[in-house]
Amino acid sequence: MQDKINGIKLVSIDLFRTLVDLEQTPQIIWETFLKSNYPPEVSQRYWQRASEILERIWDEAGTGNGHFKNVRVVLEDTCSELFQEIQLRVELKSATYLLMQKHRIHHLFEDARPFLERAGRDYPVCLSTDCDLEMLDGIDRIFPFKDIFVSESLEAYKLNPKFFLRVISHSGLEPGNILHIGDSKSDIIAPARLGVRTCWLNRAAQPWVHAVKPDFEVQSLLQVLDLLGIDPATATP
Questions:
Q1: Beta bridge partners of residue 182, listed in sequence order
Q2: What's the rounded Cα separation, in Å, for the pair 35 and 132?
Q3: Stated pTM of the model
Q4: Which of 76, 133, 181, 187 has the fewest CB atoms below 10 angstroms from its CB?
């Protein structure tokens, strides 16, 4: 990995778990679904199982070339499989509605707005997100993004090269002049293969386990400012 990023003309950034914190979502959801029927350790185990099912279904939707499934359908499929497995009687549409509503509440990480506002002075910033359009309600209150690329509109998730090919073609830039920042393999693998510069936001200091590696790794968005040659001290909360 290099020490600094040179030649960047566009910054692309992920939304969920990069700018928006979803850590309270599991607790809120299981309090609603399970109430007092299960002790915390069982609820946590079920949430872990839900995450495993979601990751598999998400990967299938992300890399598949068949009929596109939006996030609402992916979440409904996940709930359906989990609820059958644990024999939980909850109406699927209601469960999916709750999940979608929680994703529309944009609790920003502390470094999100300072990063956007400071980086936005020197670079155009676009949003590249695996989500449905309904999940972006009020996104303009976070930051006036130059462009917004949404999987539902593109009918492709970020694991599919089609997503970042659209970002590249729309920008009119060479891939190496674009920096994409995100927290997951979806933010690294496909764009890196296309020549986009990638930065993995690894807030939890986890090991990277995939063959395609990010160009840069940080634990805070403010560290990205430093990589771009911007003094993080000039970013005010």
A1: 200
A2: 28
A3: 0.91
A4: 133
